[in-house]
Amino acid sequence: QRSVHPPSVSAKAFCIWDANTNKVVYGKFDQQSKQVASLTKIMTCYVVCKLLRKFNLSPRKVFVKVSKQASEVTGTTANLESSDTISTWDLLHGLMLPSGNDAAWCLAESFGVLLWYEKQNKMHEFNFELIDVEIEEVNQPEKFFIQEMNAVAKILGLSGTAFDNPHGLMNQKNRSSAKDMCKLSIEALEDEYIKKIVKTKDYTSYFLTKELQLTQICWENTNKLLWKNFCGLKTGVTKAAGPCLASYYEEEGKKFVIVTLQSDSMDIRWCEHESLLNWALSASSN
Fold first, then answer.
1. Which of 101, 137, 172, 200 could form a disulfide with 73 if both were Cys (CB 3.0 to 4.6 A apart)?
2. What is the rounded CA–CA span in Å between residue 54 and residue 41?
3. Residue 30 has pLDDT above 90, yes or no
4. Which residues partner with 63 through β-bridges?
5. The predicted structure's pLDDT at residue 215
6. H-helix or E-strand containing 248?
7. Contact 245, 263 (CB under 8 A)
8. What number of other Cβ atoms are within 10 A of residue 198's Cβ?
9. Which residues on adjacent β-strands are paired with residue 131?
10. What angle separates helix 40-54 from helix 101-119, to the nearest 10 degrees?
11. Cα(52)–Cα(107) distance, rounded to whole angstroms?
């Protein structure tokens, strides 16, 4: 007989969301606002993709020059170097696969410049082919991007969510909840760009260095559930947030998003998501 309650997990908060009914199947402290580490990057990715679609831009044709500031961001990295020229498509993979904080900052300041141009009614002057933050006279462009992250959170009704950076590095002002992260994930997965990126196990990026040498780098996805029939979504960990994970499963008409926050260890996350998914699949069959 199926248990009314899901299996016990170490995560301090979690939420299981049925993407077919668009409702919470089960939650534990799922509306409690907490730091969510690199799950923040789901919103960063979503905002970039929304802007690409809004201005009818191809992510493969919009190139970005990496700033010195972006290349120096600490923590998990896509190994970007100052003055590398890379496509937005590749940058989005550098954001979501190796969880590059440098990629997050690069995208935020680059698309922050675009938002500044829009705000000034100067879109006709904007160079859509190559965004070079260091030659633009825009002060702290990432601030415009973070404002957009918060504006989108409000539109989506993410009442327990506020962003203060694009990568999720330790910051008391950067918070969300397991339920909000499920809602955001469902919205993000409606975008075919994002759906494709988050299920990619590894990706080779080709880009130009400062010396105009064509070079390549290979990124492997930090989400080990991709090798266990899941289709996404994003890992995260900081000392304050603990190990976090948003996963997505889609098979035979069943679609679930599961978010766990502050699990006991990095490795236990994988087992916990498999256990919660198995319970959800059983629950949906009855």
1. 101
2. 20
3. yes
4. 87, 130
5. 96
6. strand 242-251
7. yes
8. 27
9. 64
10. 40
11. 12
- By residue count, the chain amounts to 286
Q: Which residues of 234-271 are buried (b: 16+ CB within 10 A; e: fewer)?
A: bbbbbeebbbbbbbbbbeeeebbbbbbbbbeeeebbbe
The answer to whether the beta carbons of residues 219 and 94 sit under 8 Å apart is yes
DSSP classification of residue 225: G
pLDDT tens for each residue of 171-200:
788 999 999 999 999 999 999 999 999 999
**Chain segment 203-218, per-residue pLDDT in tens:** 999 999 999 999 999 9
- The angle subtended at Cα 164 by Cα 159 and Cα 165, nearest 5°, is 125
One-letter amino acid at 13 equals: A
Model pTM? 0.97
Over residues 240-245, mean pLDDT = 96
The two structure tokens encoding residue 151:
């504006």
Residue 32 contacts residue 241 (beta carbons within 8 Å): no
In angstroms, rounded to a whole number, what is the distance separating the alpha carbons of residues 107 and 48? 7
Q: What is the sign of the dihedral through the CA atoms of 19, 23, 29 and 33?
A: positive
- Rounded Cα gap, residues 255 and 281, in angstroms: 9
Query: What whole-number distance in Å separates Cα of residue 26 and Cα of residue 55?
Result: 38
Name the residue with tokens 């000034």: 120
In 3D, which of 124, 100, 126 has the Cα closest to residue 40?
Answer: 100
Question: Which residues, other chains included, contact 267 with Cβ-Cβ below 8 Å and sequence gap of 6+?
Answer: none
- Over pLDDT 90: what percentage of the chain? 95
Beta bridge partners of 191: none
Gap between the Cα atoms of 13 and 22, Å rounded = 19
**Number of neighbours of residue 200 by Cβ within 10 angstroms:** 16
